[in-house]
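Encode chain A's predicted structure.
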Amino acid sequence: MATAGSSTTWRGRALVPVLVYLSSVVAVISSLGAPLTPTIAAADHVSLSQAQWSLTITLLVGAVATPAMGRLGDGPLRHTTILTALSVVLAGSALAALPYGFGWLLVGRALQGVGLGLIPLAIATARDNLPPSRSRSAIALLSVTVVSGVGLGYPLVGLIAEHLGFRASFWFGAAVSGVGLVVAALVLPGTRHLSRHRLDLVGAVLFGAVLAGLLLVLCEGESWGWTSTGLLALGAASLVCLAAWIAFELRTTGPLVDLRQLRNRVVLTAAVVGLIAGLGMFLLLSLVTRLAQTPPGPGHGFGVSIVVSGLILLPFSVASLLASKVIPLVAHRVSWRLTLPLSCVLILAALLMFALARTSLWELFVVMGIAGLGVGSVFALVPTLVVSAVPAGEIGSAIGFNQVLRYVGFTTGSALSAVVLESHTAAGSALPDPDGYGVAAALGVVICAAVTVFAVVLPRRHRDEPALPAQGGESTDVKGSTEQGPAALRGSAIEV
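Encoded structure for chain A:
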């Protein structure tokens, strides 16, 4: 009898292409962000810091939706969850495309953020429905699609926006997600046979409140006043929610995010490094695309088109893709205790170069290439470290936790770039002081320097030293037991 992923049926033959297409939907959603920010600000008559929310809100919703969708996707509701998410993305794309103003565009972008949770579900589908001989290459292909898709998506979206208007880009997103909904309904296998898992609704609500509250404090501090009563009250409420969320997650069975795993020093290192790598990535991405499109002038930007702005990010995708393939091989010859801090140093170097050298357009291309090497290396190492450090039964939860932290880093980096530039924008001026870009990059340098030290100091050698999974497919957990390919596959496949 043919399995769901068998090549003897048309659905089996179409499964991998459809999953790759779903990964492309995520890449398109991500591409409808940073390069369009200046255009959205001009078209909807809002400040650049306000327009930045068109990217930040998508990442915020994605950070909250990913663990909840992952929990639902572990059981019989996976098929329904995927179709529902695609329907929400389709509705959000159409809403953002309609000329209803900036407020409705933000609502549409928030709905699109639900689509960021599709990647873990696509990987789980490939893992559960393909034979081992096909699942490894299929899951690796999904990761490659996400990486290359972002690099190709930015200039493609920019080309559409430049010739047809930025709202046409969102119609493009609606078309892509609509096709994804149809092919997913036709091809993806049913999941009624899987065991049901309880969704931690309380944890999801508290987690969303924490992220939303802290981001509002960060983003609105300049306009509300950093010592205003409203801002301080919001900050205090967010911290109370954070404490309540941590306490609840540590007590409940089947938590949204298993915080107990942070007791493992290697998992904690991987979590912090992944979080900061995501922050540095979107901090640079937002700064570079905004500077590139800023009108030229003494000390200002380059005034390039949206297409050229997107092309500046192409070296990032190429370099991150290259690094994600090379660094695992290097890490098996040189200790990950050396390669992980060096990867952080590359991100730090990219931020430092941007802080000191951004007077020529070619420098931005070089900056993004260096950043791609660093981010690609970190995102290739982190899942493998997690696999090596936790028992086989906890791999899925640990990887999911790391994915959530990555989205939190993305969201924070996007918001941080807007906050710093807004603080360096004079009243009545549409453009920030050129020094604002340097200050934002310098802040990123300090953060990355701290996490580099963290990556060196925290995972000190001890008798339960984790070993990286061998290239042949075996992974060793902290207790020394060995599990064949599937465990390593589940962890190492979720890369950039």
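The chain has three domains: 1-198, 201-253, 258-496.
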